[in-house]
Design a protein that fits this description.
The protein is of the alpha+beta class and about 350 residues long. Helix content is about 40%, strand content about 20%. The radius of gyration is 25 Å and the shape is elongated. The two termini are about 45 Å apart.
Length: about 350
C-alpha cells in the first residue's frame, strides 16, 4: 500500500537569484489574474474559473521565464483561494519592500525531474542537499518556496510505502501551557519555553535593527519547537494504535492575554503532525470534546474537581466522592481517552 508524502530539501544558495527572478514573474501573473478577475466581476458579473484564466496567460511562459504548467498552477491556486476567502479580489503579491511576499514557484506533475544528482525544472538544474535520496522517487506536483531568511527549498509530493505501526492500545492527550501535552499514561512533553532564553537576545537584535540576526533567532526558536513536537508525536505513533486529543482551539485562545504562551506551545502544529503521521502509520487519530474533562474524576465520573480561574492554580486534587488523588493534567487526559471511547463528557451513570 502506498500513500503520498511531501519531501522538503534545501536548494543551494547560488540558485537564489534565478529563483527570485522566477518568483517575481509568478507575482506578476498573480497580480494580473487578480485584476482580471476583479474586472470580469465588475464589468460582466462573472467569476472567472481557473480554466478561463488559463486562456489569458497561455503562451506567456517564455517571455516571463516560467514553465507553462507554473502558469496553470498559479491560476488554480488563485481560484482556490478566492473561493476559500470568499473575496472578489485577493491581496497583491509584492516583490519588494518591507512587506514583500515570500517566493513561491509552483509546478505540476512531470515539470520537475531528477537528473544527474540535480533537480531539473524549466530548463534549469538546481543542486540541493539531498537528505532523502530523491533518485528513488517519482516526482509529482510541488513548488519551490522561500523562507524569511531568503533560503530556498524544493518541496515535492511523492509516493511512499506505508509501514503500519506496531503500537497497541490507546492513549488520551491533554494539551496545556505548563506542559505542552500530557498523556493518560503519565508521559508529558514539558513546555521548554522555546523562546524564553532567547527573548533577551531577540529584543537586543530588534532594537539594534539587525534584521538578519532577528530572522535567524526566530528560525532557531521555530526549529526548537518543531524538533520537540516531531520527537513527541513520533513516540506516540510508535507506541499506540489509537490517539485521542482534546479539541482545544489555539485560534480562539490567541485572542486572550495567554496568546504568547499559546503560540509558543504549538498546539496546532502538534495536531497536524499527529494527524498525518497516524494516517501514514494506519492508526486512529481523533479530536474529541474536552468539556469538563478537567473537573470530572476519571475514576468515579463525579464533577468534584477545581473550577473557575482560581482553580487553574490547583495542579493536584482529591475527589471528594471516591477519595482518589489526581494529577490535574493526567486526569484530563484519561477523561479525553474515555470520551474517545464513547463515554459521556459529563460523568457516568450510576447503576
Amino acid at each position: 500500500m502506498k500513500q503520498t508524502k511531501t519531501l522538503k530539501v534545501r536548494v543551494r544558495d547560488k540558485h537564489a537569484p534565478l529563483l527570485r527572478q522566477m518568483a517575481r514573474s509568478v507575482n506578476f501573473v498573480w497580480n494580473y489574474l487578480n485584476e482580471l478577475s476583479c474586472r470580469a466581476l465588475r464589468e460582466r458579473g462573472l467569476f472567472l474559473s481557473a480554466y478561463d484564466m488559463d486562456r489569458y496567460t497561455q503562451g506567456s511562459g517564455k517571455a516571463l521565464g516560467l514553465h507553462s504548467q507554473t502558469l496553470q498552477e498559479v491560476s488554480r491556486e488563485y481560484a482556490t483561494r478566492r473561493r476559500q476567502f470568499r473575496k472578489a479580489r485577493l491581496n497583491w503579491r509584492k516583490s519588494g519592500g518591507v512587506r514583500r511576499s515570500l517566493g513561491w514557484i509552483p509546478f505540476k506533475s512531470g515539470a520537475a525531474q531528477w537528473k544527474g544528482g540535480q533537480v531539473c525544472h524549466n530548463g534549469h538544474c538546481f543542486k540541493v542537499w539531498d537528505s532523502y535520496g530523491l533518485s528513488r522517487y517519482r516526482f509529482r506536483s510541488g513548488r519551490f518556496s522561500e523562507d524569511a531568511r531568503g533560503r530556498w527549498y524544493f518541496n515535492v509530493v511523492v509516493e511512499v510505502d506505508v509501514h503500519p505501526s506496531l503500537g497497541q492500545g490507546a492513549v488520551g492527550t491533554d494539551l496545556g501551557l505548563k506542559d505542552v501535552a500530557t498523556c493518560s499514561d503519565g508521559t508529558k512533553l514539558e513546555n521548554g519555553r522555546f523562546y524564553r532564553d532567547l527573548e533577551a537576545k531577540l529584543a537586543i537584535a530588534q532594537r539594534a535593527g539587525k534584521k538578519a540576526r532577528t530572522r535567524a533567532i526566530h528560525a532557531r526558536i521555530a526549529n526548537r519547537r518543531k524538533d520537540a513536537l516531531h520527537k513527541f508525536s513520533r513516540q506516540l505513533v510508535n507506541r499506540y494504535g489509537e490517539i485521542h486529543v482534546g479539541d482545544v482551539s489555539p485560534t480562539k485562545l490567541v485572542k486572550t492575554p495567554m496568546a504568547k504562551s499559546v503560540l509558543d506551545a504549538g498546539w496546532g502544529q502538534l495536531k497536524t503532525l499527529l494527524a498525518y503521521k497516524c494516517a501514514h502509520a494506519g492508526i486512529v487519530f481523533k479530536e474529541v470534546g474536552e468539556a469538563y474533562t478537567t473537573r470530572t474524576c476519571s475514576s468515579c465520573g463525579s464533577l468534584s474537581g477545581p473550577q473557575g480561574v482560581n482553580g487553574l492554580r490547583i495542579r493536584k486534587w482529591t475527589c471528594c466522592e471516591c477519595g482518589v488523588a489526581h494529577d490535574r493534567d493526567v486526569n484530563a487526559a484519561r477523561n479525553i481517552l474515555a470520551v474517545g471511547h464513547g463515554r459521556p463528557a459529563v460523568g457516568i451513570p450510576v447503576l
